[in-house]
Every structure is written in C-alpha cells, then in structure tokens.
Amino acid sequence: MWKKEFDTSYVGFMKDGAKWLAENTDIKLVGLDYLNVAAWDEGVPTHHVFLERREVILLEGLKLDGVPAGIYSVHCLPLRLIGADGSPTRCILIK
After folding, report:
1. Which is it for the CA torsion 45, 58, 34, 18, positive or negative?
2. Rounded distance, CA 11 to CA 40, Å?
3. Is 92 helix (H, G, I), strand (E, B) or coil?
4. What's the superkingdom here (predicted)?
5. CA-CA-CA-CA torsion for 60, 72, 51, 44, nearest 10 degrees?
6. How many Å apart are CA 95 and CA 86, to the nearest integer?
7. Which residues lie below 8 Å from residue 26, measured CB to CB, with a gap of 6+?
8. How far is it, in rounded angstroms, from Cα 19 to Cα 77?
9. With DSSP H G I counted as helix, E B as strand and the rest as coil, what are the percentages for the chain, rounded to 5?
10. Residue 73 CB neighbour total at 10 angstroms
11. pTM of the model
12. Which pLDDT tens digit goes with each residue over 42-71?
C-alpha cells in the first residue's frame, strides 16, 4: 500500500464473493490493508453488494503490518460527516 505507484493486482473481493459473504455469514466488518476492499475490476459492483445490505461495515487502508497474530477487539471511531457515504476512521486494536 505504501508504494509510489498504484498496484492494480491487489487482493480484493469480487461481486460474487461479496454477495456470498453478505448472504451466508454473520460477518459485520470487512477490512483490507489496501485502498479498496473490492478487486480492481469490480470496484463499484462489489461496493454496492456490501452497501445494499447496510449490515457490513467496510474498512479500507488498514495498516496491519507488525500486528502479531491473535484475538483482538477492534474499535472504529469514524468522523461524523453529514451527508457523506464514508468517513476516515481511526481503528484501535485491543488484545
């Protein structure tokens, strides 16, 4: 994520994967350590799948390198932006 050039080969959700996750699990938060949770070719359709459900929170651009494997509680503190469909968020991990 911290390279000078944008990398379109990053790993992200395709529309069908997002749909399966939303319909078949009780997952409420999806986070990725790149700029988008959706695969490069499927950005808008994938976001629509997640956002139509209004139950799945998307976190993009997480900086997780250096975090040891383990069980954590995550607390997300978004900015309150009136009329916005997204917001910068500070996420805190508590072990």
Report:
1. negative
2. 8
3. strand
4. Eukaryota
5. 30
6. 27
7. none
8. 26
9. 25, 25, 50
10. 8
11. 0.73
12. 878 888 888 887 778 888 888 888 899 999
Strand, coil or helix: what is 19? Answer: helix
Residue 42: both structure tokens together: 């499927």
Structure tokens at 90: 């500070």
pLDDT at 82: 92
Is-contact 77 91, C-beta < 8 A?
Answer: yes
Q: What are the angstrom distances between the C-alpha of 12 and each of 9, 73, 77, 83?
A: 9, 23, 23, 27
Alpha carbon distance 25, 56 (integer Å): 11
Q: How many CB atoms lie within 10 A of CB 18?
A: 27
Residues 74, 87 contacting (CB under 8 angstroms): no
Quickly list DSSP for 6-18: --TT---B-HHHH
Q: Which DSSP string do the residues of 36-64 spell out, in sequence order?
A: -SB-GGGHHHHHHHHHHHT--EEEES---
